[in-house]
Amino acid sequence: MNIYVGNLPLEMTEEELRGEFLAFGEVVSVTIMNDKYIGSGQPRCYGYVEMTLKSDGATAITSLNGKKVKDHIVEVVEALPLSDKRNNGNFSVKTIHRSNKSRQRSAIKSESAPD
């Protein structure tokens, strides 16, 4: 189970975060996000914890959500998947062309206007 942990203190380490979750079961991985992509390397105050069992993850979420960690009340929820793997990348997007609607409205107005 992948778990999102938000509002982490800036000084929180991945090992400290791992320690918070180990009380509830086996932790596969811990990642605290940072700005390495823009060069500063600053922590982003959120991360992800992956636990082996969904039941352990659910217990951890219930127990840790709203808990005070180093003067920060953390938000702990099940992370949403990045993509639906069953979809295999085949998806459709419904496009609404606003310009066509405004043209239709102006055409209707001009037809109904008295001469």
Strand order of the largest sheet: 2-3-1-6
Average pLDDT taken over every residue: 80
Shape: globular
Biggest sheet: strands, sense, closure? 4 strands, antiparallel
Percentage of residues in DSSP E strands: 25-35%
Element-level helix/strand string:
EHEEHEEEH
* Rg from alpha-carbon coordinates: 24 Å
Helical fraction equals 25-40%
CATH superfamily of the domain at 2-80: RRM (RNA recognition motif) domain
Count of DSSP strands: 6
Kindly report the CATH topology of the domain at 2-80: Alpha-Beta Plaits
* CATH-level-2 architecture of the domain at 2-80: 2-Layer Sandwich
Low-confidence stretches: none
List keywords for this structure.
115 residues, alpha+beta, Alpha-Beta Plaits, two-stranded antiparallel sheet
